Amino acid sequence: MLVEDAAGFHAWFAERGAAHRYRIAPAPLHALDGWETEPGTGRIRHRSGRFFSIEGLRFQRPDPAVPAWTQPIIQQPETGILGVLVKRFGGVQHLLMQAKMEPGNINTLQLSPTVQATFSNYTRVHRGAAVRYVDHFLTPGAGDRVHYDALQSEQGSWFLGKRNRNIVVETTGDVPVHEDFCWVPRPVMAGLLRVDNLVNMDSRTVLAGLPDEPGAPERPAGRPLHDTAALLHWFTGAKVRHRPERRLVPLGEVGGWHRDEERGEIVHDAGRYFRIIGVDVEADSREVASWSQPMLAPVGRGVIAFVSKEIQGERHLLVQARAEAGTFDTVELGPTVQCNPGNLAEGAPRPPYLDAVLAAPPEQVLFDTIHSEEGGRFYHAENRYLVVDGTHIPLEVPEDYRWMTVRQLTRAGLVGNIVDVEARTLLACVRTLPGHGAGR
To answer: Where is the dTDP-4-dehydro-6-deoxy-alpha-D-glucopyranose 2,3-dehydratase domain (predicted)?
Structure first.
């Protein structure tokens, strides 16, 4: 299927949603088919030893406000593939996207990359159907050109050291298109990023690395507030300064959390942060038609925001050096604001810039969309993604914050484990805004 405009896309997407049967039902953790709770540690794992497990983690950092805590966390050591296939039709770049069901998606079906598969999936540990189009990314052919390939991190507060391979490949070859896939023009894709809960996280992280169209008009370059050497010096210093320590602990000994035996869930004592729940799934469009699994279900909706400001003739974004419990390499570049306000304890300090972002008048809000997080592991996880004009925000910022140009952040995002997944999502959205092109 090849669509020409947004109306054609939405007609195809609605048709695919009606074409399949899905069922997602809650299930107690102790009753999940194929899963077990390890005696002694309480760890939840698959009986095959593959896929992922729910572990306990202790995290400690030199921060007097919150020096240490323990929590459940998802450990998934294998590296998956998130790949977008690109082809030109009539001189216009089109992206091969799929309508894919994930059990944690709020609206069940969302727009996924051409390939979204764990190592267990594409090596067919589950003995299901083969992953379509994966050979374009594993062994590109004569008509394939690799534009982007990097190991990128995922949510550091919920995953322990999780990475996926993000790839963009352009092809000139003939590609038979399955009915659940669609060639979407790149300009249409930019508009779809403004639709709530439509473009999934795996698509957004890859789109952040999509190269600019050849011949696209470049904005006259201004002057960055900080050059690359100065930014690297600051970022490396932040990694040394934070020096967090983490280690796995028995899940049954994680303080502040308990297992609700009646509901078959793991919950926080104060009802904050997230729950670990179980689901039974049926989906006739997936490689395996039915399965059971644990999922992480966040409590409430988060806020992810960039403050954007023109400085010295160049568009800048305010980034933070952010350490999270599961981050692969200690610290990554995050957005200006990255938090769930509902998790803040009474009297706790508010994160810098949170209130300024939430109080921004409509004329200063450049982007405002609700996006879901990864629906394969997270149940109904969503964040409000914002870009706010920060003309009124001072150039002087706290120690863990710096102004970076869109160009600088885009280039940093092409290297793995530097820009976190929340910032990459926003970067994909920022690059569609007038005056915010990367121009790389």
So the answer is: 8-210, 229-430
